[in-house]
Design a protein that fits this description.
This protein is α+β, with helices and mostly antiparallel strands. It contains two helices and ten strands; from the N terminus they run αβββββαβββββ.
Length: about 170
Amino acid sequence: MSTNSLICSINSVLSKLLNQRIRKINRVANMLTLCFGDSVICVNMKGNPVIKSKYSLHIQCNWEITHGDRTLLSDEDFYVPMHKIHPRLVEDDDIGDSKFDELSLKFNADIENNPITVISFQANVIGGFHLALNNGVIIKVYPYDPSDGESWRFLMPGTDEEHFVIFDE
């Protein structure tokens, strides 16, 4: 895919997030999930109805959430223990034990009480992007992680739309 084609594709996908409210951040193991937009009812793999957000980003590369010069959250927070009492690194599936889990609770409380929306975005030539929120927060995604697989994915739960995926080079 050419550089211009890549940027155009990312812009097309991210444009759906403009003026959409961010609803929640979470993690599944070492993958960041961001939920945007109104709630939709979907059917899970067991055939049961579940409530999801209209749009979702799944990010499994380097990322950070900043406000001005300050980093609020980053992918490194997945691996830092919540309490310094335990001198071990957090395992991917120890939900509730990492610095991310602690910080995301505060972040989610802030966005629950204040309608925070996407006001702009900027894609880059390596398949990453910045999403700017109306409270000065910027979500930055850097897909140069040398792992095998995908860097990030854009989903529209409850639709038949194909997922948009950026794979690691």
